[in-house]
Amino acid sequence: MPTSLNPTSSPSAHLRFFSAPPRPAFALLALAACTTLATSQDLIHKAPKQDKTIVITGATIHPVTAPDIENGTVMFRDGVITGVYDAKAWQDWTQKVSLDKNSFIFIDAAGKHVYPGFITALSQLGITEIQAVAATNDLSEVGNVAPEVQPTVAVNPDSTLLPVTRRNGILTAGIHPSGGLIPGQVGVIRLDGWTVEDMQVKVGNYTMAGLMVNWPRVRPIRAWWMDTPEDEQLKRIRENLAALEKTFDTALAYARERQANPDVPTDLRWEAMRPIFTLALAKESGIADEAGLKPSTPLFIEANDADQIASALTFCEQRNLRCVIVGGREADRAAELLKRTGTTVILRGVQNMPQRDDSPYDDAYTLPKRLHDAGITFAITHGDDTAHERNLPYAAGTAIAFGLPHDIAIKALTIHPAQILGIDRQLGSLEAGKSATLFISTGDPLEVTSDINRAFIDGREIDLRTKQTELAKKYLDRYKQTGDIK
Length: 486
What we know:
alpha/beta; Urease, subunit C, domain 1; TIM Barrel; eight-stranded mixed sheet; 15 helices; globular
């Protein structure tokens, strides 16, 4: 394209230059993007509030935090589990209480299985739809340090990725932003609701489960594809580490001031970081007994290399900060430090290629077993594109195939992520008093051949139809009409 117009050309030539229609290829691309946005809308109705007590009978109940119950019963009312019974306990209870059938819904689940809803500890469901269409991605904010950013505020309740994800039993998700050193907060959502407020799961008194930190690499990359000189990489590493030091020093100074004088003007960035300093400020005040203290909100630190993990843990230990390692590709190499500091891990993917040239082919597949053997608590996430989040159970299945005990794999999708996200008093297991967020499966939900028949979020029965199930019915009808099948 010319940078200036030829002064000798005619006015009509100038007009043609400025008002030329878009190229056909670009026009088609723009139309396709608009069409995609228009059709990327979940048309499934949201679940209504539970209005009757629901009783699931005859199933194998998997409480997760207690032994499995054959021929068990789960009862829940107003979105809360009121009891989990074996056959005898249920019989004893029914003899004492008159069951008004107008107030109860009975579900016969004989031969089936009941599990607590799976939890994906970190995902970007609802804040991204199609990676190739920028307008559907709301993953990051401007700036390198943005602790005030709340990604759950941007969640689209009508994302088409939500129905297909919960169709596989994933009913709760930790949502995190990306980009920069401190891209924002980690929030938690239930995968059904009319509005963002309906979907948000509170973590204590906060809507924040933690603060996301992308830890800088601590050594340069010497791979063949790296074209940045080593000295330039080292310079950036030092700058990023210095920026983190300065950010946390400033935020701690602000937290001290606010504690001493609540009338100090509010700064949204540093205010968002105050919950992470609970323990640090308590120790500064001379409180020795940590047992009665409210735990600090953790940092969710993205770190994969062993030395990167060690650097992050040392930083947190020196500053009395809680942290969770996210990614953790070499977490087993830092197992002793993780165990000593009581740090948990969110594994970002199990079905990955080896990280090192000299690693065995199954390095990622066996990592959950190695962490379990080392006594490290961890959650499993799928780690692939958000559109494939539905495959989370099969990532856990891969870990089982490579040595992880089945019960630990189930915990890595239920109670462990609930504990890591700080929502284990509400979710993660089937216990009286917890949210009735659960599903009924025809078999082991980590097997591709199993099907999830019914699912409930806070006692509300979720419509398990998806775009895929509706298309399957559509084309099945087509072949019935043409006579190709009966």
